[in-house]
Amino acid sequence: MSSRSAVRLATRCTAFPTKRTVFPASHTTVRSVSKTPKREDAAVATALEYEVPIITYKDGLREEHVVPISEPPVVKPPGGDVRKVAYPLSAAVCDQLTPTMKKFTLNDRVAVVTGAGRGLGYNMAQALAEAGVKGIAIIDMLKDEGEIAARELAEQTGVDVRFYPVDITKETLVHKAVEDIVDHYGKIDIFINSAGIADSNMPAENYSIDRFRRLMDINVNGNFIVAQAIGKEMIRTGTKGSMVFIASMSGSIVNYPQQQNCYNASKAAVIQMCKSLAAEWAHYGIRVNTISPGYMDTALNRVPQLDAQKKMWVERTPQGRLGNVDELNNLAVMLASDASSFMTGSNIIIDGGYTLW
């Protein structure tokens, strides 16, 4: 046994128990992919679907509370509603694709997606499964949501899905998780980083330095920690991989009317960090790009307290609507695939035209 393997085994005895109660074994399933997924924990489902944590500020005071919401109508983009079920890409179908379309497939590749317990990250993980990946590792500090997401994704697609309940700011735990992923799958081809928070909606003069540090620690330091760990493995295994970071148009503009100095700064840092990584790792065959979404129709943006702000956002968007949560999927797949093989260091803004005005 190599010294590297011995160290990994020793660390997994505590952080990765053999019973996999912390990091469950593969969620791969042979159930029909047409079966509607079930959320077995009704309480968790209710929390995910109908309750949204809200942080408000008044006179410089911060208040935290949970707002119950009824299911709102889904904004319909061209192409229809958000799908609740994913479908795997079969070998038979892939063989019939033209050479151009095959460039967009991800057959036999392994992906790591952070922040995929819900929202944009989960939707992109679903898209990767449909594009043909053989394995997906979800990293998310939200344990209940992550377990449900991994189980549902595996049931829908038959993909080998593993979930790691890890805080991305904890360097040691991140490196252990990444090593375990490589031990299981043999490599990592794709990294999509969707983890981040936006706790900064208050005037800069009232924003505490502790809160500033926390947001930067997650949005910037945590992003780098995971990228570094995966980058090292890609370099070690000679994998010519692709990294896709979810930044924000807030990294290029100042949002209105909300005041979010720290969030904007963190996303600008992510964009520049990725450009630097793209330049440094290009000779290893590793590509690094960012997607900068505009205002999206996520659960966190559906609460009544944001109605006035959303009206302003929509009015300032040429397309006159918020983005749907699955409208980043195709771009994420393209950036992860060989269809973007000569593309690195790019920041793609997908915002319905918001930044045009």
UniProtKB/TrEMBL annotation:
Question: Could you cite one Gene Ontology molecular function of this protein?
Answer: mannitol 2-dehydrogenase (NADP+) activity
One Pfam family named in its UniProt record: adh_short_C2
- E.C. number, please? 1.1.1.138
Q: Which UniProt keywords apply?
A: NADP, Oxidoreductase
Which GO annotations describe the biological process of this protein? mannitol metabolic process
PROSITE patterns of this UniProt entry? ADH_SHORT
Looking up SUPFAM superfamilies in the UniProt record yields: NAD(P)-binding Rossmann-fold domains
Cited InterPro entries: NAD(P)-bd_dom_sf, Sc_DH/Rdtase_CS, SDR_fam
Q: What class of enzyme is it?
A: oxidoreductase
Checking Gene3D superfamilies in the record gives: NAD(P)-binding Rossmann-like Domain
Q: Which family does it belong to?
A: Belongs to the short-chain dehydrogenases/reductases (SDR) family.
Protein name as it appears in the record: NADP-dependent mannitol dehydrogenase
